[in-house]
Amino acid sequence: MMKHITMFILLLLMACEAVLEEVPEEVYDNPLDIEAITEEGIETPALMFFPDEININTNEIFTVSVYALDVQNVAGAYININYDQDKLLLIAINPGTFFSDLQDPLYFSETQNSGKIELYTVFFGADSSSVSGTGSFFSIMFAASESGVSSLTYGTDCELVNPNDNQIEIKGFGEGLVIAH
Fold first, then answer.
1. Which string of DSSP letters, residue by residue, matches 121-175?
2. Which of 20, 52, 132, 135 could form a disulfide with 31 if both were Cys (CB 3.0 to 4.6 A apart)?
3. Across the chain, what does the average pLDDT equal?
């Protein structure tokens, strides 16, 4: 009887060891997690893409959002985005939700499928309203027109302004990665 108990315990330990070896390590890489991006060397306030990595099939449509991260007192923005027009086809640009609590914010964009998108959003109000925190300015739909790796980057001339039209320093810029198979 003691032999069977010892054998049972030995088998149980071996099974537990096998299970422990198969436990996957969790990865937390949310590009909107201030603590995580700070560890990666990106300071706030920042402009980020969400998601920041997209794996898709060729000709598949995907959406990426343009986020302001940890900003204070923002009443307007100019955002310049660069992308590889040989691999990505711009489909649509839609307003985000960051200014949705303000009355009648304006959104407009300029593109000529040149690999550059210029986005503008502003709030003109009598009470000089603004927003603070983290939120989406725009969502952009692309299609992967060719397989390969391409990136989405912010231009260095991006601007955020407060209600008095004073520039707010942007200290960090995230990057988006698109992998099309």
1. EE---TT---EEEEEEEEEEEEEE-SSEEEEEEE-TT-EEE-TT-PEEP--EE--
2. 52
3. 81
CA distance 158 to 65: 16
Distance from C-alpha of 109 to C-alpha of 71, rounded to nearest angstrom: 22
Span 46-66, average pLDDT: 93
In angstroms, the CA 87 to CA 155 distance is: 19
Which two three-digit tokens encode residue 138? 């725009």
Identify residue 154 by its one-letter amino acid code: Y
**Distance between CA atoms of residues 145 and 151, nearest Å:** 14
Average pLDDT on 132-140 reads 90
Please check whether residue 71 is in contact with residue 168, taking contact to mean a CB–CB distance below 8 angstroms: yes
Q: Model-level pTM? A: 0.76
Domains of the chain: 34-180 (2.60.40.680)
Report how far residue 33's alpha carbon sits from residue 174's, in angstroms, rounded to the nearest whole number: 12
The two structure tokens encoding residue 29: 């890489």
Q: What is the pLDDT of residues 94-104, one digit of tens each?
A: 988 887 766 67
